[in-house]
Write a structure and sequence with these properties.
The protein contains seven helices and two strands; from the N terminus they run H-H-H-H-H-H-E-E-H. It has helices spanning about 5, 10-40, 45-115, 130-135, 145-210, 215-230, 255-260; strands at about 235-240, 245-250.
Length: about 260
Amino acid sequence: MTSGDIVHDQFLQSVLAASTHTREKCMQLIDLAERSAVASTETIPEDTKSHLSTQHRQLNADLASLRLSSRESIFEVRATKQDTAEARQEIDRLHLHLQNLYYEERHLRGEISACESYDHQYQQLPMIPVEEFLQTEPEHAQDDEKSLMIARISHELAEREALEQQRQGLLKRKQGLIADNKKRKDDLASLDKDLETFIDAAKPIQKLFEKHRAAIRQIILKFRSLLSYQETQKIAMIYEVDGITFHIALAMEVPNTNSSSTQ
């Protein structure tokens, strides 16, 4: 494997070529110098001296070009190192950003999993079965799961609002009945009190009638006898029993038994 198989950059290949050429020049000069040292006792021809001088100048030019190329390559290496460092920083930044994205992805997947496994309150609502709902609302038969659940919740809300209105109406009616019963209870309590007062006030009269029951019976008998012998329409009596005076007046029409029998 040659250097050309390893290095593909044109500038580096030119530097390697110049280096190889300069090496060859150096080897030629060394051979020439060795031959000149062997023949140092002999006189060196002028053309040989001229050739050595020319080769030496060319070697110096090649070495200067090689030094220039080496300096340029050093600058290129420095620039490449700077670019490499900047690229490494960019790669590190992108790698850190990628790690943050991976962390955010794992966090979001965990949140999604928690949301999917969360026991939502709407799933615990005591709603009617789906089959019964579709019987009452057949237009939702082709809806997806989300739309069907929203429709069921809306239907349940409407039903509960209607039931709440009925409950409020029954509650008002109950309150009215309670107020009416309370009023009647108060009236009955007042009536009981009045009745007790009346009974307490009538007790002396009852005792008086119990005491003079025989005398009152005699008065009634006398009235009957008077009615059988008189044809007057007004009867008045004053009767005294045990110091109590009874003023009795009766106005009535007594039929004429003789005229009715003659007719």
